[in-house]
Amino acid sequence: MDYSSKNLDHLGIVAGVCKEIELRASIDRIVGVDKRQKVTTGEAVEAMVLNALGFVSKPLYMFPDFMGTKPVELLIGGHLKAEDFNDDTLGRSLDRLYKTGTEEIFLQIAINAYGRYGYHGRFLHSDTTTISVHGE
What we know:
Pfam families: DUF4277. This protein has helices spanning 11-20, 23-31, 41-52, 63-68, 72-75, 87-100, 102-116.
């Protein structure tokens, strides 16, 4: 038997939170799943979240290289391999998200997270305004 090791770092925690808030399931339910897809839109988004929170900023065409250093079968799913996350797959997923409407998707994920972590208020105010300041 051949054994190999891959660096998990903190991404196991990130993947666990993605599962807890039902990130993949919510996206796939809203966007839909084409039976011809090997990687669903939800799985692609999870991979992009792992990349973004992995303190790495790799362009889409280098995504398989990033995923190749991670245990994809543990983080996302046993049926997927690093090379499945190519720029075409990720690009199609981003197109599906845009076509569906990112606000609706974001709201559903926020509601899932809100409930999952014990907040059961009558109202949810979600201000997603971002203010960025750059300079010295």
